[in-house]
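Journal club side-thread
Mid-discussion, someone asked how the predicted structure for our own chain would compare to the paper's figures. Pasting it here so we can look after the session.
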Amino acid sequence: MSGLPVGQLIDGVKLAGVYREQIAARVAGVRARGGVVRLDAVLVESGDNGARMYADNQARTCEQLGIEYRLHRLAPGAGYDDVAGRVLLLSSEESVHAIMMHLPLPEGVDPHRVQKLIAAEKDVEGVNPANIGNIVYGRSSLSPCTALAVVKMLESVYPRRADSGPLLRGKVAVVVGAGDVVGKPIAVLLMRHEATVISCNKWTPMLPELTRSADVLVASAGVPGLISGEMVKPGAVVIDVGVNRVTGSDGKKKTVGDVVFEEARKVAGWISPVPGGVGPVTVSMLLLNVVEAAERRVGRAVPTA
């Protein structure tokens, strides 16, 4: 990582804006070919205002990019049969090409059981086990949005190789956190870019020694402050995927990552903040998958990873 400045921010808001411009152009291309770009989202009404606010924000973003947005609302207390039935109906409809499920679901409804019912080619969150399996085998697929966001952020930092080789060839990447939706898919995507990947978790023995070996350090354990500045290799690229709500010294709630940001910034070459890092890019990756699914319908596929 020699030559990289120290403590440079990977601005997720700015990068997300760049991708939104690209998405809008691709949406226009689909329309020019007679296609439609639409996102069908399922939301079970509840007292969770956060989920409803996210859906409203999503609708506004889609409108700005020329993407149609249809929100399918289910009544509070909907059971598995209600939710599964709506997902299966959307999966079977020819006019539908992009489906996502808003969380949380009602108590007793397993989200993984529901998500696997989404047709793989319409699963724009990349949560269907078939899509995750396709990532492992390197087949064309709709990648999990957060994992794809991490790769796009790394692409914004690393210069294109003169030999046109894979992005991370010769780099050591350490992923702390091995969740099914985030950590594991990130590790696999980094492998596809020929990084030497070490998968860890908060219980891993000698964790500081392993993280200090990383040219690329991805923190996705969901543990606030797990990664201190002493655990970062000088000049490393640090991507903080953690989103944790904690109480600050003033007694107010705030959002922090898994990395002790101010410490790590003094050591890292590049680092993503929380908030304002992975989150905005992840939202753009969802919409990138939406337009990718639409392009496949009209016969023009553009790889997303």
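Post-session note: The CA atoms of residues 234 and 267 lie 5 Å apart.
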